[in-house]
Design goal:
The protein has 396 residues and is an alpha/beta fold. It is 45% helix and 16% strand. It has a seven-stranded parallel beta sheet with strand order 3-2-1-4-5-6-7, sandwiched between helices. The relative contact order is 0.11.
C-alpha cells in the first residue's frame, strides 16, 4: 500500500514524535511511505534524525514554506488555509497521478481544517485521513474557556468536515472532545479516538543522569522542556524565584529557544547574577537519550503556559506522567483542567507571583512530590493501555 504523509512543521513534536513513530510502524507493515513537507523542515535537526533512521525507505517531496502560525484572526486563518489548501491539493494531485496513493494522511490536520470542511471534495482521486491535535471549540463546555460565536461556527464546520465523502478517518487525541461529541449526539465511524504519542521513559538513578548531562547542581530541580518560546512562561518562573532566592531549587531549561526569547532570558539572567547560578540553559535540539536523562533527573516539570498559549494539549505533560514527575502548571486551558482533574501537580494563577512563590517555597522545603505519586501512577497506567503508533497504523 502506498501512503502519502503530509507534514509541514518541524517545531514541537510533530516530526520527532508523531511522524517518527507512525512511519516506523507503517514500514514494519511493508507499506511504501512518501512524505510531502517544506524546505525549512528538510533543513531541521528533527528531519535529519528521521532521514538517518529511515534512510532509503522514505521518498521525500518538498513544497514551498508555509507559516503555520499565520492565524491571528478567523479571516486571516481562513485565507491562509484556503491559499495553502489549494497549493497542497495541486502538489498532491500531481504526485498521485504518478504513484496512485491508497491513502493521503495529514499528520497535522488543524491548519487545514476549515478549508477541507468546505473544499475537501476537490480530493477526487484518493481518500484522506488526518490527525486533529488541538481542537478547542468544545472547551467552553467544560469551563476551560468562555463560549463565543466562533465556537458555534467551528462546530458547524466540523459537521461539514465529517460529511465529506473523501474523508476516511479523523484521529482525535482529546478525551474531552469525545465526551463533548457524545453529549451533542454527534456520531461517526470516521472518528477514531487514540492516545497521544509519547516516548516511554527508562528509569535511571539521578546520579547517573547528572554525570551523563555534566550537571553538578544540588537541590530540587524544575525542568522546562520543549520548544522554548514566550508562551512557555519561562520569565514568569525566573521572576518568581528571583524575588525570593530559594537555596533548594535550580532550573534546567532544555530545548531549542526562539532567538528573541533566548536573548530576553539571557539579558534577565545577566542582570541577576545570584539567580543565574541556579539556571542551566541547554539551547539545542534534545535527543531521546538526553530527554530520558532530563526527566529522570528533575523533580518537577514546568507547564506554566501564559496567555500566548493555544490552551490545547501538551506532549510534555504526558512525558511528565510517564516519568512519574509532578508538574507546576498555570490554571488555564486543557493542561490546567487535566492537572486539576487528575491531581498530578501544583496549579497557580497567571500573573499571581505570590501564589507561585508559595508553591516554590513548598517545593524547596518539603518532599511535596510524594503527595502526587499515587495519582501519577494511576494516570500513567491509562497512558500505557494502547500506543499511538499501533492504534493509528491499524486503521490508517
Amino acid at each position: 500500500m502506498k501512503i502519502l504523509i503530509v507534514e509541514l512543521d518541524y517545531r514541537g513534536h510533530h516530526i520527532i514524535l508523531y511522524l517518527n513513530k507512525l512511519i516506523g510502524e507503517l514500514l514494519k507493515k511493508k507499506h511504501e511511505v512518501f512524505l510531502l513537507t517544506t524546505k525549512s523542515t528538510t533543513n531541521s535537526e528533527p528531519f535529519y534524525i528521521l532521514k538517518d533512521k529511515y534512510l532509503n525507505q522514505l521518498s521525500v517531496y518538498v513544497i514551498e514554506d508555509i507559516d503555520l502560525n499565520n492565524n491571528k484572526n478567523l479571516i486571516n486563518k481562513f485565507y491562509f488555509q484556503l491559499k495553502y489548501f489549494f497549493l497542497l491539493l495541486s502538489q498532491i494531485t500531481k504526485l498521485n497521478n504518478e504513484y496512485r496513493f491508497s491513502r493521503v494522511y495529514f499528520n497535522h490536520f488543524d491548519p487545514f481544517f476549515f478549508a477541507f470542511a468546505i473544499f475537501g471534495y476537490f480530493f477526487r482521486s484518493c481518500k484522506v485521513s488526518g490527525l486533529l491535535l488541538n481542537i478547542k471549540f468544545h472547551q467552553y463546555f467544560f469551563g476551560i474557556k468562555k463560549k463565543n460565536i466562533l465556537d458555534n461556527i467551528k462546530l458547524l464546520l466540523f459537521k461539514f468536515f465529517l460529511k465529506n465523502l473523501k474523508l476516511e478517518r479523523v484521529f482525535i487525541i482529546d478525551d474531552l472532545f469525545k465526551i463533548f461529541l457524545k453529549r451533542k449526539k454527534i456520531f461517526s465511524k470516521k472518528i477514531v479516538y487514540i492516545n497521544e504519542a509519547i516516548n516511554k521513559i527508562t528509569f535511571l538513578k539521578k546520579n547517573i543522569c547528572k554525570k551523563k548531562l555534566l550537571i553538578n547542581k544540588k537541590g530540587k530541580c524544575i525542568l522546562i522542556y520543549g520548544s522554548i518560546t514566550q508562551r512557555k512562561g519561562v520569565l514568569e518562573l525566573l521572576e518568581a524565584i528571583n524575588l525570593n532566592i530559594l537555596n533548594g531549587i535550580y532550573v534546567i531549561i532544555a530545548g531549542k529557544f526562539e532567538k528573541k526569547y533566548f536573548d530576553e532570558i539571557k539579558s534577565f539572567l545577566d542582570k541577576n547574577k545570584i539567580l543565574k547560578k541556579k539556571i542551566i540553559l541547554l539551547n539545542k535540539f534534545i535527543s531521546f537519550n538526553e530527554e530520558n536523562y532530563l526527566f529522570n533527573l528533575c523533580d518537577y516539570v514546568w507547564l506554566g503556559y501564559n496567555h500566548l498559549s493555544s490552551d490545547g494539549s501538551s506532549g510534555v505533560l504526558k512525558l511528565s506522567i510517564m516519568a512519574k514527575k509532578p508538574v507546576i502548571a498555570s490554571d488555564r486551558g486543557l493542561i490546567g483542567f487535566l492537572v486539576k482533574k487528575n491531581k498530578v501537580g501544583f496549579l497557580f494563577s497567571e500573573n499571581n507571583l505570590f501564589n507561585l512563590q508559595k508553591i516554590l517555597r513548598l517545593i524547596s522545603l518539603y518532599k511535596s512530590k510524594r503527595v502526587f505519586y499515587k495519582n501519577l501512577v494511576i494516570y500513567r497506567k491509562k497512558l500505557l493501555l494502547n500506543s499511538f503508533e499501533k492504534q493509528i497504523s491499524e486503521v490508517i
